[in-house]
Amino acid sequence: MEKKLGKRILSFVGNENNIQSITHCATRLRMSFKDRTLVDEEAIKQLNGVLGTMEKGGQFQIIIGPAVNSVYAEMIEGTKFEGETVSSDSKEKKNIVTVFLDTVAGIFTPLLPLLAGSGVLRGIVLLLTQLGWLSTESSTYTILTVSSTAVFYFLPLLLAFTSAKKFGANQYIAVAILGALIMPDFVALMGDGGNGTMSSFIGIPVVLMGYSSTVIPAILAVWCQSKLENLLRKIIPVSLHLLFVSLITLLVMVPLTAIVFGPFGVYVGQGFAGLVNSLMSFNGWIAGAFIGGIWNVMVIFGLQWAVNPVMIQNISILGYDRIVPLSSAANFGMAGAAFGTLLKTKDTKMKSFSLSALLSIFFAGITEPAIYGIAVRYKRPLIGAIIGGAVGGAFMGGMSVNAYAFVFGGLTTIPAFVGDTLIYYVIGLFICFTVGTIATMILGLDEGEVTVENSNPNEKSEIKVPLHGQLIKLEEVNDEVFSSGMMGTGYAVKPTVGKVYAPFNGVVTMIFPTKHAIGLTSNDGTELLIHIGVNTVELNGKYFETFVAQGDKIEQGQQLIAFDIEKIEAAGYDVTVPVVITNSDELSQESAVLEFGN
Fold first, then answer.
1. How far apart, in whole angstroms, are the C-alpha atoms of residue 509 and residue 523?
2. Where would I find the PTS EIIC type-1 domain in this sequence (predicted)?
3. Closest by CA position to 340, among listed 433, 450, 447
4. Per-residue pLDDT tens over the stretch 328-339
5. What are the catalytic residues?
């Protein structure tokens, strides 16, 4: 099988060990090397998908074009650079909430298929026992039970592995550290005392805890392990890494985790879970309405990742959870919104999309297609989904519905809720779906606000010049990537006003973190790249301001970006703006229009 472009490039630059740093801007990969002689530049130029190479400012640059994001991802996949926040030249710091959510998502995402599969299997086993088809005294029951619950017992080991990948630590050492804490010999130290039993390590008090099924201790321990390993690799000679990095890491981290991170993580996890569970117990109707209603909004911003560990820990320790049903309520509220859209829309393409989004929820518990393709697009179905989730969630919360496995709410995962409250769960789902559907149909779609497809796909959009200034030929741009035409056909503008406007009706397909470049796609499929200045990526967003985000729909003449011409030039940068069609050569200067009438 032919290698992906990113991996082929990696092989021609001497592989990851020869790369000192790697980033990318809007059009090219940027790298520096330990040994430049190992780079086969001619071979790289011959690769299909590579537009050219150049060296500037001590960086080796490979020109890719708009596909640079995916090529970069392919290149660092499975390398030491994967997971590092260097996917661009932007040094813009993420806020602490974003970093936290990104970290939790990176740790738990690889485990979700296993958790979901185990949850459904556990539900099937419970259903078979409820129906009397499987005896709890049989060996078959035991084998099926351990098959479905092993993921929770050994959860610290699984989290150690995924956390190590996220934090850049040795994954096998991480597993060994957490594995030591669930070994029978360590557990035996507690005797009959249980959690909180006191012991000691070289005279230091140790609060003994049971670590099977726990979440936070593994994450904290591996984070500390990653810092220790980085330090050891700097101070220990490379020839001794094989032996002493693992030796010292185990020697330090196992006792440290048992003394500090383990007990702290267990108490924090239990406290957080207890707080959430107390809120649920205080008034299930109110808590159910709130969580069921707000959950889809949380998914839009990725905030559900902060709650998932609580649900997983509840099931691991208590054997049940009451938040999982409420997330299912939100799912079926969104399913109702999708069904309401299917019934309400007159657009055949949207009918087809709504049906596929609905089936995605029913059979997999996956709401993202409905959320981003329907709810966010039309806005009003999101309100319908919130109403449906809140009403059904209130019922489920009020009836104290339990989930016995961590699953995504869909029809196929109903066995995970088999128990005394199953009937209330099913009724709750019906309420969510019905209310979500009716609310969406009453609220309507107002399809005039959104164009699902171009009304006349054969008619080309008029492409206006996106900013005021002097029009020049692309060949005159002081950047070989653009002047050579390797990025595509177009023109450039010497701007007189630091404002970029939408040249047509369409959507923002890419906006770079440093705000100096934006990719647009018109309703008829024309792909346009507007690149403000030459090498202005180095300004890291300084002197730029954006007014749109990736995925936003735009109208011709709408302001997209503002930039300070004088300050950019004072910083020593050429502010010429290349405007390039990256998928066509049909743009000509004669067809351009300079004025917007404002």
1. 12
2. 102-459
3. 433
4. 999 999 999 999
5. 25
